[in-house]
Each structure stands twice: as structure tokens, then as C-alpha cells.
Amino acid sequence: MSYVQRGERMTVGQQRAWDRHWAELGSEVTALPAGPLDVASWFGRSAPVVLEIGSGMGETTAQLVAAQPEANYLAVEVYKPGLAQLMLRAEKLEVTNLRLLRGDALVLLREHLEPESLDEVRIYFPDPWPKKRHHKRRLVQSESVALIASRLKPGGVLHLATDWENYAEQMLEVCQGESQLRNRYADEPGGWAPRPEWRPVTKFENRAHEEGREIRDLIFERV
């Protein structure tokens, strides 16, 4: 998997949010001390840990964090303005259970999160890399899913969503091929999960509907 570093120019509001909150709420993955991240100390409490990979501009993430105050919510994203915008949104919602990491999620998982330490991993609308020659850059591959699964507690959840049919089929095939996971909705048509009512509908998702692309959810759990 690889990602393309987009421009880092921030709005005035985003820069202010960054200056106000990043030192307390954020860290570069490359700046983390060697070894496991002490999540409980960072949040000041022990609680279920949710990791969202690719929080984008934070539209969905901020609402999910606010709706789940009982969880310690980690968002990992490479795009600095997106993280700043997420902090702005979180500030408006007065959430206190969010921490942010900037960098490669797979490095975070491999080097800084212990096996069986996560209650849920969410990957919503990852970059589809639609051209066939770019499919190898997609996040959801056998190796990454095996790594994610190893970090989930038994019974922990991997929740995926995409509006690209080809990627949805790849996700389903990869997750079904991972022995550490089982499909909670294996008995549903195609193995797809019903769309959870609690996942906010974003402008991005509405546009996908307008363009005739079906949204697919997958919910697997660690065995």
C-alpha cells in the first residue's frame, strides 16, 4: 500500500486549530517512542480502543467520536489539513476522547500497537486506486488485513465501507481468506453487512449515490 502526499496548505482556521491542539492531541507516527503506544496514558483512562484508518477531512470521524464517548478513539491520517479540520470539528462538538496520528497506519499497527489491543478498526472509503495497475496500492490487501486482525481483541471488529464495486469484492475476498476473521453477516446476500444507521452519511457518500455507485459495508470480527 502506498499513498500520495497531497498539498499541505491549511486555512487560517485549520492552522489555529493545529496550533491550539496538536501538541496535546496529536503525534507524528515517526515521532512515537519505540515500542507499544501507551494509549491509556495518552487518554488518561482505560477504555475500549477504536482505530480509524484514513479519517480524511474528519466529517464522519468527529460525529462518530462524539457519539461514542465511552471509547478511546484514535484517528490515523497522512493529510495534515484533514487532521487540522478534524480538530476543528472535534472542538465544536466538545469531544475529549479523540487522539490523532499522522503517518502510515501500517507502521503504527506493526510497530506501536500490541497484538489484541484494539476493540475495533474502521476503514471507510479508502482510496480505491481504480486503475488496475494501481490495485497493488490499495490499503486492503491480505498482508494488511492479517496485521489488522492480529491487533484486534477476540470478538473485536473490522468494519469496512466503499462505494467502488471492484474494491468491495476485493475486500470481501481478502477478509474471507483471513483465518483470524469471520464475517458477521455471512448469511446475508453476498456476505454484505446492512448499512449501520449510526454511520453518518457524508457529502461524499451522497455523491456516490447520485453517481449510481452502491455503498457496501463489511463487518468482520476476530475469532
TrEMBL record:
<keyword id="KW-0489">Methyltransferase</keyword>
<keyword id="KW-0819">tRNA processing</keyword>
<feature type="binding site">
    <location>
        <position position="163"/>
    </location>
    <ligand>
        <name>substrate</name>
    </ligand>
</feature>
<keyword id="KW-0949">S-adenosyl-L-methionine</keyword>
<dbReference type="GO" id="GO:0043527">
    <property type="term" value="C:tRNA methyltransferase complex"/>
</dbReference>
<feature type="binding site">
    <location>
        <begin position="202"/>
        <end position="205"/>
    </location>
    <ligand>
        <name>substrate</name>
    </ligand>
</feature>
<dbReference type="InterPro" id="IPR029063">
    <property type="entry name" value="SAM-dependent_MTases_sf"/>
</dbReference>
<comment type="function">
    <text>Catalyzes the formation of N(7)-methylguanine at position 46 (m7G46) in tRNA.</text>
</comment>
<dbReference type="InterPro" id="IPR003358">
    <property type="entry name" value="tRNA_(Gua-N-7)_MeTrfase_Trmb"/>
</dbReference>
<dbReference type="GO" id="GO:0008176">
    <property type="term" value="F:tRNA (guanine(46)-N7)-methyltransferase activity"/>
</dbReference>
<dbReference type="InterPro" id="IPR055361">
    <property type="entry name" value="tRNA_methyltr_TrmB_bact"/>
</dbReference>
<feature type="binding site">
    <location>
        <position position="52"/>
    </location>
    <ligand>
        <name>S-adenosyl-L-methionine</name>
    </ligand>
</feature>
<feature type="binding site">
    <location>
        <position position="77"/>
    </location>
    <ligand>
        <name>S-adenosyl-L-methionine</name>
    </ligand>
</feature>
<comment type="pathway">
    <text>tRNA modification; N(7)-methylguanine-tRNA biosynthesis.</text>
</comment>
<feature type="binding site">
    <location>
        <position position="131"/>
    </location>
    <ligand>
        <name>substrate</name>
    </ligand>
</feature>
<feature type="binding site">
    <location>
        <position position="127"/>
    </location>
    <ligand>
        <name>S-adenosyl-L-methionine</name>
    </ligand>
</feature>
<protein>
    <recommendedName>
        <fullName>tRNA (guanine-N(7)-)-methyltransferase</fullName>
        <ecNumber>2.1.1.33</ecNumber>
    </recommendedName>
</protein>
<feature type="binding site">
    <location>
        <position position="104"/>
    </location>
    <ligand>
        <name>S-adenosyl-L-methionine</name>
    </ligand>
</feature>
<dbReference type="Pfam" id="PF02390">
    <property type="entry name" value="Methyltransf_4"/>
</dbReference>
<keyword id="KW-0808">Transferase</keyword>
<comment type="similarity">
    <text>Belongs to the class I-like SAM-binding methyltransferase superfamily. TrmB family.</text>
</comment>
